[in-house]
Amino acid sequence: MAEREYAYFSGCSLEGTASEYDASVRAVLKELNVRFREPDDWSCCGSTPAHTVDHVFAAALAARNLRLIEKLGLDTVIAPCPSCMTVFKKAQYGMTESEAFRNEVNELLDEPYNCGVESKSALQVLFEDVGLDAIAERVTHALPGLKVAPYYGCILNRPPEIARFDDPENPVSMDKVLMAAGVEVTNFAFKLECCGAAFGVTKREMVNQLTYKVLSMAIDSGANCIAVACPLCQQNLDLRQEQVNKTMGSSFNIPILYFTQILGLVYGLPPREIGMDKLVVSADEIVYSRITVEEMRKRAELEAQAKVKKPEKKIAKEEAKTEENE
Amino acid sequence: MRVGVFICHCGSNIAGTIDVAKVAEETKKLPGVVYSTTYMYTCSEPGQEEIQKAIKNENLDRVVVAACSPRMHELTFRRTVAKAGLNRYFFEQANIREHISWIGTDKELNTIKAIEAVRMAVEKVKQNKPLFSSSFKINKRVLVIGGGVAGMQAALDCADGGLEVLLVEKSPSVGGMMSRLDKTFPTIDCSICILGPKMVDVAQHENIKLYAYSEIDEIKGYVGNYQIKIRKKATYVDWSKCTGCGACMEKCPSKNSYDYFNFGVAPTRAINIPFPQAIPKKAKIDPNYCRQFTKGKCGVCAKICPTKAINYDMQDEIVTEDVGAIIVATGYSLIDMEKLPEYGGGRYPDVISGIQYERLLNASGPTSGHIVRPSDHVEPKTVVFVACAGSRDKSIGIPYCSNFCCMYIAKQAILTKDHIPDSQSYVFYMDIRSPGKGYDEFTRRAQEEYGVKYIRGRVSRIYPKGNKMVVRGADTLLGTQVEVEADLVVLGTAVISNADAGHMAEKLHISYDTFGFYVESHPKLRPVETNTSGVFLAGACQGPKDIPASVGQGSAAASKVLALFSKDMLESDPAVAKVNINTCVGCLKCVKTCPFQAIKEKELRDGRVVADVIETVCAGCGVCTSTCPCGAIQLQHFTDNQILAEVNAICLK
């Protein structure tokens, strides 16, 4: 990994509401020796507001940033926010597939973009480039009792021809990354269910109903924590959890962590460094439950011993019984 | 040399975008051409008579017809000139329809192109040599590959017609997919009750030799004379001793073997007879699960077998057979449910495929015909059927309709109500496709008499909620989202070709489409023939089809073989490779490159070694001619000189 260098595009969310995602991604990448540089003078990625108005304009906003990265001499950008990542991938796809579209977009730019930058989410980089073995190797701590529902959201791996990552209907990459880090994941059926996205502003009640479904399915799956990879998902599930409880009459109190925060925890990073204090629904319990891998091993040994002892007694009892019968 | 040129209008097919009169006028100027005319439909009887009259009146010795593709009418016109006394190879056909008039709209350019095409044909025909076919004997035995209902029908019809038949089936029993079905639509008659007697007939017919649990390793030869290598796979049971008593199956300790016959609905034993009506009713060991093979010790079946039929050291056996024709009836497969992750089949035990449900309904199935959920063995009260699970879905590369799912889903919904009277079935469908005789009435009955609720719309997701499966989809008639809480979900999984369909096609030298289904010679007029003479198709290997269609094709293929074998001799095609022994240096490169093993080495009387073509085996592909370093081997009717004459005609203006 060391010789390869990536570009890093934080985007607006990671500078604001999702600063803990930014912090935890950077920290985890550092732990895994992934080197990256950031472009100067980056601008809006071209997400939702732009592409609902004009596809060429949206692609131009994306391509402006991709051009900056191209100029840095880098060929892959890590865009942790799925909204940024998807408009980047979409612009790249549209501009490589159609020359006419590329010309239209480039006309709006100061300097033409030559389509030389591949965009990846943080999850994709960890899963495909860093690899599960390297992720597992760095683990120092365990989170006993933690059961995580991995929540991918709608656009991390869709539409398949643009995302070109994982399965569009049943993704498993986050499951595997967390499992490699020694974290237990549940069989969560609503991995891709809609969180309501930006409709939280205009149609609050609808979003509350949607997030209610996601939260209750996570609880049903046996989870006591949800892992996310998107600032909007995190906001709808975490920030609006109290709203959901009010509108839907529920009593959820389930922490919503970025999957990189969970990795940060098992890598033994200080909670503040990975923004654990920024969460609305407190994850303190998870933080306090953290123990070192060695402690965990000792605990497991003790439990195993306890288990072995019991059957011995049972066998003894059974033997006694059979003797009696004879 | 006197060449006559006949330009066909083909109604407006050619004359619409080509100035045929001008083509005739221009070609008349070509050297050697003494006669040139146009005709409305040259292939019609008066059209052919016109050619024959011209041959006599104008004393023609070469004929060129500019019309459709030679694949359409070359044979027709060869016969026409032969009847007028010319050698049939003194004829050339210029394709100005498929190659020119159908694909271009500019009449002027088309006309120029057509003139060039005719010029090529004229130069070629002037180089043509008279060729004569020889006749050869045919072996009147037929090989049927696949023992499903189509293959069995073909085998029985051929056998009844007096032919000796070899029936090769890759699984341990004949019967195919139909033997797995419970009832058949639209009559709800018991599948195995109508199939069973046919299976027994196959086993008992004196003209049929059955190779069960065998596969085709190699096919050599040509129509009338094929050499087939059949691999009899090791069953580890001596079938000459096995009586099918089933004692081994009862005692086998390996109880978790995958049951191929039941599509994994329930496990079976490592040694098993697939089903009670199996033909042949013999046991077979699955070495992937048998403890003797996986752990190296067990031997229970060997101890229990009353006839000492178990043989753990058995090896595959290769048998060679000679036949004259082949009927391919290799059937179909179903898409793996895991390819449809939105439905969760494979992840959730209570999402099953239609064929698995068929086994649950069947009295000889793993549940003795009681419908139960695989997860907790409880009788389901709400069953949801999802039609087009994979079919008509371009995104997974299956744009076609699977033909019979609409019908079997209606049947299964009716049977569900019969088995569990207080149950409710739902069917999510795109369109109800029921065009057969009595079919639409049947799907109506499901809705009207059996109260099956049909919801027009696709399912977006299936997920578990408690012990129920929630099926979420659209109701496009109401324009709303619907969710049905089901106890059991049945997917009408798409029909796909067999995984090894491509390999089999290559062995047979027949063509297959993008989806692995075999291609018939003509979609309407030659539905069971292939472009390889002597090889015929029957059943779903050609495309998804139901039982009546498969049986119909089985009989059709048999009648084609019987017609072929009604002659004792066949005529060979003289357009094959020929070696000029004066220029052949005996390098024998052609022997190595020939894909049909049609060339062998021959020692001349002076001791010189040269290549020699076996005329009847050569398929005329021409690979050898491009391999030969000294141009000694030439494909007759397509010699270097003939091809170069065409090239010169189009290059020299």
What does this structure look like?
Chain A has 326 residues and is of the alpha/beta class. In chain A, 54% of the residues lie in helices and 9% in strands. In chain A, the strands form 3 sheets. A 4-stranded parallel beta sheet of chain A has the order 2-1-3-4. Chain A has a 4-stranded parallel beta sheet with strand order 7-6-8-9, sandwiched between helices. Chain B is α/β, with parallel strands linked by helices and 653 residues long. Chain B folds into 5 domains: 3-127, 3-Layer(aba) Sandwich (Rossmann fold), CATH 3.40.50.960; 141-233 and 316-332 and 497-564, FAD/NAD(P)-binding domain (3-Layer(bba) Sandwich), CATH 3.50.50; 234-315, Alpha-Beta Plaits; 333-496, FAD/NAD(P)-binding domain, CATH 3.50.50; 577-636, Alpha-Beta Plaits (2-Layer Sandwich). The longest helix of chain B is centred in the first third of the chain and has 21 residues, at 107-127. The relative contact order of chain B is 0.10. The model of chain B has no long low-confidence stretch (mean pLDDT 95). The A-B interface holds A 160, 167-170, 187, 189-190, 217, 220 and B 340-342, 344, 347, 395, 463-466.
Summarize the biggest pleated sheet of chain B. Answer: 5 strands, parallel
Number of helices of chain B: 19
Using only C-alpha atoms, the radius of gyration of chain B works out to 30 Å
- How much helix is in the residues of chain A? 40-55%
Q: Total number of β-strand segments of chain B?
A: 32
CATH architecture of the largest domain in chain B: 3-Layer(bba) Sandwich
CATH domain topology of the largest domain in chain B:
FAD/NAD(P)-binding domain
The CA-CA distance between the termini of chain A, in Å, is 68 Å
Radius of gyration from the alpha-carbon trace of chain A, in angstroms: 23 Å
Strand content of chain A: 5-15%
| Number of separate domains of chain B | 5
The succession of helices and strands of chain A, N to C, reads: EHHEHHEHHEHHEEHHEHHEHHEHHEH
Share in β-strands of chain B: 15-25%
Helical segment count of chain A: 17
Uncertain stretches of chain A: none
Q: What is the general shape of chain A?
A: globular
Percent range of helical residues of chain B = 25-40%
Gap between N and C termini of chain B: 22 Å
**Mean pLDDT reading of chain A:** 92
